[in-house]
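User: Here's a structure from my thesis project, written as structure tokens. My advisor, Dr. K., wants to see whether a designed sequence matches the one we expressed. Can you design one independently, without my sequence as a hint?
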């Protein structure tokens, strides 16, 4: 059976790397011809991507810098000829080709509508597991890709990353990974546990309309840009304890089917939970809101705990609903750092002087002064 050619590199390589390109093409053809070899071939490609590699070009040789040679015509070519950049550039191209092979054969375009009864295209490799622990990945793109499960623990993602529309049938592990640029997980389906403990998102991180069917764990993660979870669905527990949100944190219209844990999280930018639905308990104990905290029209089905939370800006609970009863909402020892900011507390609650100074959120029938 004839097969398509190997995914072409952007530039023709030479020397040792031409052998590596040829090896990747040969492996791809073997896997395309014989499905029984596909997982093995993917394992080999993943092992290659796990080999040490710096996403940054090596510095020029000191003697070239000292002589001012970097400013002379042909200096870049001379540096490459001396091995300071050429080998790195060729290695980078081989890695990009290895990544494209994975993306090409894991992409299932049927995931765009999720309803197609058509069979997958012949290039699609089904039921593949990815083992990319500690890998260095460059401008990684798995848009509309489908995997059985995937391990990206401690991986270093250089540049922007997109998993938009992807589907992880099993566990997706990203613990300790570092995303250098923007990361898009919009409309991704996490069929098993989604583990992002200790992850650093250097740019914006988008999880809009993502579906978490297993536990979603983000403890101690750091979002340096905006964290966008609008309309995301968390079917089971969602854990964001100790997370640092440096930019805007948007959870508007998100649905939390299980417990939602944001204990000790720090929201440096605005925190938006407008119209969010909390089906289980929601815990914001010891959480810090340095700017606005918006819970307009949010629905809380279980306990809602804000004990020892700190509110530094405007607070809005307009039309928020609490179906757990009068004892389900807790503001014990919460700190109000900007009493002059716009506040709309839940029905039956108000701002008052706190014992020992400062301000507290108390029930409307509390006889403390306001």
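Assistant: Designed independently from the structure alone:
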């Amino acid at each position: 059976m004839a097969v398509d050619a190997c995914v072409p590199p952007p530039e023709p390589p030479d020397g040792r790397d031409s052998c590596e390109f040829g090896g990747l093409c040969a492996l791809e053809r073997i896997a395309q011809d014989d499905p029984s070899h596909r997982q093995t071939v993917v394992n080999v490609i993943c092992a290659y991507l796990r080999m040490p590699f710096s996403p940054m070009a090596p510095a020029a040789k000191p003697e070239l810098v000292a002589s001012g040679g970097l400013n002379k015509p042909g200096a870049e070519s001379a540096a490459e000829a001396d091995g300071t950049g050429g080998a790195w550039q060729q290695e980078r191209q081989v890695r990009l080709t290895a990544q494209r092979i994975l993306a090409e054969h894991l992409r299932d375009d049927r995931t765009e509508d999720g309803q197609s009864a058509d069979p997958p295209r012949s290039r699609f490799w089904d039921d593949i597991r990815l083992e990319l622990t500690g890998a260095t990945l460059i401008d990684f793109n798995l848009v509309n890709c489908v995997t059985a499960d995937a391990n990206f623990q401690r991986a270093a993602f250089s540049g922007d990353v997109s998993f938009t529309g992807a589907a992880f049938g099993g566990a997706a592990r990203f613990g300790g990974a570092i995303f250098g640029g923007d990361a898009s997980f919009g409309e991704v389906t996490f069929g098993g546990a989604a583990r992002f403990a200790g992850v650093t998102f250097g740019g914006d991180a988008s999880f809009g309309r993502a579906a978490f069917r297993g536990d979603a764990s983000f403890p101690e993660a750091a979002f340096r840009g905006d964290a966008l979870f609008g309309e995301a669905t968390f079917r089971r527990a969602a854990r964001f304890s100790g997370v640092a949100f440096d930019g805007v944190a948007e959870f508007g219209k998100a649905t939390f089917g299980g417990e939602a844990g944001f204990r000790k999280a720090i929201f440096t930018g605005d925190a938006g939970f407008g119209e969010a639905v909390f089906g289980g308990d929601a815990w914001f104990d010891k959480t810090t809101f340095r700017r606005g905290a918006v819970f307009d029209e949010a629905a809380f089905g279980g306990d809602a705990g804000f004990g020892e939370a700190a509110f530094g800006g405007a607070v809005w609970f307009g039309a928020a609903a609490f179906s757990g009863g009068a004892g389900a909402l807790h503001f014990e020892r919460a700190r109000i750092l900007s009493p002059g900011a716009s506040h709309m507390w839940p029905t039956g609650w108000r701002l008052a002087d706190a014992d020992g100074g400062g301000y507290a959120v108390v029930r409307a029938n509390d006889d403390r002064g306001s």
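When you compare it with your expressed construct, this may help: Residues 16-98 form one domain.
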